[in-house]
Amino acid sequence: MKKPVQIIGIPLDLGQSLRGVDMGPGAVRYAGLTNRLARLGYPVQDLGNLEVPVRDTLEEERRQHYLPAIRRVCEAAYQAARRSIETGNTPIFLGGDHSLAIGTIGGVTHAQPCGVLWIDAHGDFNTPETSHTGNIHGMPLAALLGSGYPELVDLGRPGAKIAAEDVVMIGIRELDHEERSRLTDSGICVYTMRDIDERGMSAVIREALVRLEHHDRLHVSLDIDCLDPSEGPGVGTPSSGGLTYREAQLLMEIIADSRILTSLDIVEINPILDHRNQTAEIAVDLAASLFGKSIL
């Protein structure tokens, strides 16, 4: 029997300026995630959504970029992730903006470290000092490595939750100037879209998995804006020149072949900006491939 999957919605929309990603979990559910996984033989339990305050009720936090509320939601995500792993499940976290990864990755690494594949158009490696917008969804990876707001760095347990050698980034193509410098100096392995263009997705992901082979568990943090906007238009921060549908499928299929996936984030789907739920449907297709759907 395959390892049970738990679906946990985190409709967090406080980490960015554009509204709509709070509807992402519903869009992915509507696109049939549970049924697709069940057809692959997984027992699936949907735990519903974590509670997230409505932005309009948090006017007093606006100048803080909603930091107190984001911390509370990420703390709940941390505990939910920790429980899911400890009870022998494979959690899938449906976002919501990428700020939630501070909690999910913190939680899945509470008892034991794991490798992290960060699949994204953006670095998410800003700090409050380097960010041009102050939006916290551009800071989660930095916080996980120990830089940024102390309230987020120390969330769940004190200090960094992962180290540079635990992370490989794939699909990067848009970085702020200071963020680029920080990422270059960080020691994180980064595969940009140029690497994928020149070497091909197969070579990149196979090398990435070798870099993480010191772990026997893998968390995939999948920001759907890794896709080219022509493939996945329903995201708040689209960036041209991204992954094709087929490149993304191959990426998921090769990760699935490794058989070390233990948790997954699917983030930044904005149904307001989508076309007939196209982006959420692609996300479900990718998740199915990640969990073992194959052509033959």
Structure description:
It is a single chain. The chain is of the alpha/beta class and 296 residues long. Helix content is 36%, strand content 16%. The protein has a single domain, classed as Ureohydrolase domain (Arginase, Chain A, 3-Layer(aba) Sandwich), CATH 3.40.800. It has helices spanning 24-30, 33-39, 67-86, 101-108, 140-144, 150-153, 177-186, 193-199, 201-211, 245-258, 278-290; strands at 5-10, 44-49, 90-95, 115-119, 167-172, 189-192, 218-223, 261-267. Strands 2-1-3-8-7-4-5-6 form an eight-stranded parallel beta sheet, with helices on both faces. α10 (245-258) packs parallel to α11. The chain is globular and about 55 Å long. The model has no long low-confidence stretch (mean pLDDT 97).
